[in-house]
Specification:
Elements lengths: L26 E12 L3 H6 L16 E4 L2 E8 L10 H9 L3 E10 L5 H8 L13 E3 L2 E4 L9 H10 L1 E2 L9 E2 L5 E9 L6 E8 L4 E6 L2 E6 L10 H10 L5 E4 L8 H7 L2 E5 L3 H13 L6 E4 L3 H14 L12 H15 L2 H14 L9 E4 L18 H4 L12 E8 L4 H16 L10 E9 L2 E9 L2 H4 L3
Parallel strand pairs: 6-9, 13-14, 13-16, 14-15, 16-17
Antiparallel strand pairs: 1-3, 1-4, 2-3, 5-6, 7-8, 9-10, 11-12, 17-19, 18-19
Amino acid sequence: MACTLTLDVSPPVHRWMDTSLQRDAFKKTIPVLAARVPASKTGFLLKSDVMKKSLMDLPKVRSVLRDPHDDLKRLVLLNVSEDVALSPEVRNFLQEQSVTLVVHNLDLSYDYWTADEILHSILPEELCKGSPSGFAITGHLAHMNLNKEYLPYKHIIGQIVLDESIDSSNYDLPLIKNPTIKTVVNKLDSIDTKYRFFKMELLAGEPNYVVEHHESNCRFTFDFTHVYWNSRLHTEHDRLVQLFQPTDVIADVFAGVGPFAIPAAKKGCAVFANDLNPESARYLSQNIVDNKVTSLVRASCEDGRDFIKKVIGRARDHPFPAYTGPKFSKIQAKEEKRRLQLAKSSPTAARALVDQSTAENQSPRQTISHFVMNLPDSAIDFLDAFRGILLESASERDLSGNYANMPMVHCHCFTRELQPDRAEADIIQRVESKLGHKLDPDSEVALHMVRSVAPNKDMYCISFRLPRDVAFAR
């Protein structure tokens, strides 16, 4: 008979659990066959080609144990319970090596099984296929989106997620609990209509919703129950920031707590960052300080439409200092200090340094290069605010001379058109309707599919250069 894995290591089934998790109920003892060998022969047995498919290969389980009755011998665990399950080739090999076969009881408990396995042993069979063990982590908080059929089991699910362990190489070693997850929540269907953050309920752990999240070498602090944050947009945050040049000035219309603004400032960009939500604006201001970009990010809390109309004038009236190059590392800073000290002893070099410093500060940044509009549910509705933003009457200044190149607009949005060509047509039509102007296909119009948010709903970002006729429309 061919050697196959015949051990049943699935957890015991407890479909009677529904509201509370009984961890002690998850225990299982499995008799496994073991080869008792002298400690000196263990390596030979493990390296044998004949034994390769017969050795224990379960996650978290040691394949070699000390013999409890003889310190000079070892038990090499096999993947069968009885010797009749071994192939004739394996049995002959063990006999030739004078190996004694014994039965070892393998004791498994709750911590052995994965969250998926535990859930499958608790949930009704019809719910097992789509069991919701997946979650996103933001700081110390794990957040889930449970479908309604799983809500009766929500607290058990939350506790299992809280218990989820970092995988250990051997079951006999102490399992290391996930040190980051201390709170598990479920996002509810209801969304705050004004500030667009999700309401949520506590499933397990501490009722602490103020998180510290790290992304793009930046640190973000915020109250997850009062601001919008989506960890799944990390790639999109990075993608847009990569489009910016360090010399650019960015206007972030719906900045939230700063996932675009602060990484852009770390790159050297100057940023006007705005959000209507006072809590978002408060944490945005804190994150600006914490990430040491106070000279490059100016926060505001106002309606997005008002911000769009005013920010052009703000950049002109209160420009940012010119970009002076990347920040030095500690080693580079020491080298620069040494260079400056040497320059003091040379009049020619000193004059060159003065000329360089003067040149760097001659051109303050007063022109918006990019508008970021990350409010996919309604950002397109704000595009009409761009009409006339460069008219002299809009800011009591003539701004046209500053904008030989019009700013790029990056507008996030949803569409229910799942075919790329139809999605593009739908989004462009809605954008043109709000702008009151056609987009020139040759003027840097680009559509990027960000992610699918539902079976019939995709998120996109449309980027286009603002038509000059729109900016000067009356």
